[in-house]
Write a structure and sequence with these properties.
This protein is an alpha+beta fold. It has helices at 28-38, 42-46; strands at residues 2-6, 20-24, 57-61, 64-65, 81-86.
């Protein structure tokens, strides 16, 4: 199933500067793995050593955080938008 993955500015060097990449995947996890196959380097940035999404990376399917859905196993309909959003910290 074809889905779009929105790439944050900080990771666009891995996608050749593209802000959005189209990949195949039936779940969020499959789509993110396909992203790494098409543009190597994403796995190290998005996943920890156990294969889980890093704590400081948020992944959304549409408007929903996948942590509140089925995680990486969340099914994605054709044409869905997955957004990778690095956490922002700091301030006072």
């Amino acid at each position: 199933m074809s889905v779009k993955v929105r790439i944050p500015t900080q990771l666009r060097s891995l996608s050749g500067g593209a802000g959005e990449v189209e990949v195949e995947g039936g779940t969020v996890g499959e789509a993110l793995k396909a992203l790494d196959v098409a543009h190597p380097g994403f796995t190290e940035r998005l996943f920890d050593e156990n294969g889980n999404v890093r704590r400081f990376v948020n992944v959304f399917l549409g408007e929903e955080d996948i942590r509140f859905l089925e995680g990486l196993g969340t099914p994605v309909p054709a044409g869905a938008l997955i957004s990778v959003v690095p956490a922002v910290a700091g301030g006072s």
